Amino acid sequence: MFDLALWLHALVGLLGVAILAWLVSLPLRNVSLVDTLWSLKFLLCAGLYVGLQQTQSPRALLLLILVAIWAVRLSVYITARNHGHGEDRRYQAIRQNNEPGFAYKSLYIIFGLQALLAWIISLPLLAASSGNAPLGLFDAAGVVLWTVGMVFEAGGDWQLARFKANPTHAGQVFDRGLWRYTRHPNYFGDFCVWWGFYALALGAGGWWSLAGPLLMSVLLLKVSGVALLEKDIGERRPAYADYIRRTSAFFPRRPRD
Q1: Number of structural domains, the chain?
Q2: Beta-carbon neighbour count of residue 45 at 10 Å?
Q3: Contact, 63 vs 3, CB < 8 A?
Q4: Does any domain span residue 39?
Q5: Closest Cα to residue 176, out of 255, 81, 97?
Q6: Is residue 193 included in any domain, yes or no?
Q7: Secondary structure (DSSP) of 65-129
Q8: Whole-angstrom distance, CA of residue 40 vs CA of residue 128
Q9: Is position 252 within any domain?
């Protein structure tokens, strides 16, 4: 059952985090910390959805564990990756396009918008934490999807980090391991994780939370994921054009010859 009051509680929490993060970003002149907080916003939502229920079902506890593992791993990885590099070039471009006054505009352009997106995407977490239906096939499918997603997301991040850590690889295109089968194994992994959460929601009868994984899929494929990352990568890295020709953009498959 859809619990509007509980969903609104999550919105208040997300907006509170957004305002605090914005205040921290002002003296730093760096809004990249929003990426560190992205996955943790869903952990906040899951914690509220599960913690504020009168009773916690096995599905709700399973969901909380899966969200926590995914969220903490991703946040730690992004924090470590961005440490010492200043503001991400994507946010530098947004800053430049919204001056003067970006410091104040960033409250709603960056932090507020991300909070609203997280609020909508969190719908499967709300659905899966509600109800007391016994665990079943949908839940098993959700765990399988989540596991596949974590292998691609965490595995892809780990492989790329190892590749970049070698100075002799500077300027080269990484096309091995999981990156041989998809140009974005991390984004494909995120896609699987969220459809896994939706499968858990279906197990609780939460078909109505479909907007969550659909919105996440659109963001990964068309907005802040594949489309944004590859917008000008061919100009910055000419060797990437051949990688595009050979390798699937998103869904894994064998590379072309």
Answers
A1: 1
A2: 27
A3: no
A4: yes
A5: 255
A6: yes
A7: HHHHHHHHHHHHHHHHHHTTS-S-HHHHHHHHHT-SSHHHHHIIIIIIHHHHHHHHHTHHHHHHH
A8: 18
A9: no
Does residue 251 belong to any structural domain of this protein?
no
pLDDT tops 80 at residue 231: no
- Residue 72 CB neighbours (<10 A): 13
The CA dihedral of 21, 22, 23, 27, to the nearest 10 degrees, is: 110
Nearest residue to 148 (alpha-carbon basis) of 127, 178, 126, 174: 178
Asked which of 1-5, 65-69, 208-212, 241-245 is least confident by mean pLDDT, the reply is: 241-245
pTM listed for this prediction:
0.93
Average pLDDT for 227-239: 67
User: For residue 39, what are the domain limits?
Assistant: 4-246
At residue 225 the predicted structure's pLDDT band, cuts being 50, 70 and 90, is low
Token pair recorded at residue 80: 């470590």
